[in-house]
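User: I'm new to structure prediction. If I give you an amino acid sequence, what do you actually give back? Let's try with this one:
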Amino acid sequence: MNDLANKTVMITGSTSGMGKYIAVDLARRGATLLLHGREDARLAKVVADKQAKTGNERLRTYTADFVSLREVDEMASHILRQEPRLDVLINNAGIGAGTPLSKREVSEDGYESRFAVNYLAPFLLTRRLLPLLKKSAPARVVNVASAGQQPIDFPDVMLERHFGKMRAYMQSKLAVIMMTFDMAEELEGTGVTANALHPATYMNTKMVREALIPPLNSVRAGAEPTIRLAVGSEVEGVTGEYFDGTRRARANPQAYDQEARRPLRVLSEQLIKLKDDDNPH
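Assistant: Good question. You get back a string of structure tokens that encode the predicted 3D arrangement of the chain. For your 281 residues, that looks like this:
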């Protein structure tokens, strides 16, 4: 896990919290980093800070607000045009349950915001970047999920009838795990692995603090298991797993149900308006 000079790693949500910690760690070890954020100015500041701390000049930035699938799609197109390889994609960006007063919100596309940002955006980004990951194989996809999971209510996926902010968050994170398991099966034999993890409980992040939850763990406590899945030699070739930290764990039973994963995949492809030539199914 030391020399990453030949590795290119993309980290979504890299301007704060766990994503920022991971970026500094991997930059110190020489990786080429593709850093995602919502704002150009903030990304530029973060890059300058990381370069000063690590001496790594191979840091490139890509901007997209995950409430907009159009912006995610455009970012993916820029990456495919500009990057010769991608060894690891860490889908880390996301939003939490919000403040105690948070209400139901919708994305630019009209979808429930947590489902859109936490699930649909990484679903779209990963699907668009799969050709580059396959070309760079062996490659890895690491999806940051949560131990907080709730089954998807397919008649009310957008929670228009029965909204709860924690329910919305937990549903979106289970969807991420379901996506991971589906992708691992689809990518079998390509040299690209896909795994999901709950990094750590209630890390000291903005997401936790704004919910008025006392942090139980440091950002480092969640970053290290995520880095392990991304570049650790001990998990080389491991795919289709859900981890609680570094321990293999069982997700909500719905994640293992093909009859639930299939309609989620079909719905997701419809919602992101996947082009026919991007659709492997």
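You can read the tokens as a compact description of the fold. Here is one thing that stands out. The two ends are 35 Å apart (CA to CA).
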